[in-house]
Write a structure and sequence with these properties.
- The chain is mainly alpha-helical and about 50 residues long.
- It has one helix at about 1-35.
Length: about 50
């Protein structure tokens, strides 16, 4: 029985650690998103010419 409780406790610890990690990742990606979207109007092309 003790082994099962230890496994359950370990899963709970991992879940508690994962929640702030995912939250911080979402917060950071929302923060940098507008900076990336506010770039130049034209997108670069591989050939350097006009996109058709």
């Amino acid at each position: 029985m003790d082994l099962i409780r230890a496994k359950q406790r370990w899963k709970l610890v991992l879940a508690v650690m994962a929640i702030p990690t995912v939250g911080a990742s979402l917060w950071y990606s929302n923060r940098i998103g507008p900076r990336k979207a506010g770039g130049t109007e034209e997108s670069p092309t591989l050939g350097g010419g006009r996109a058709e």
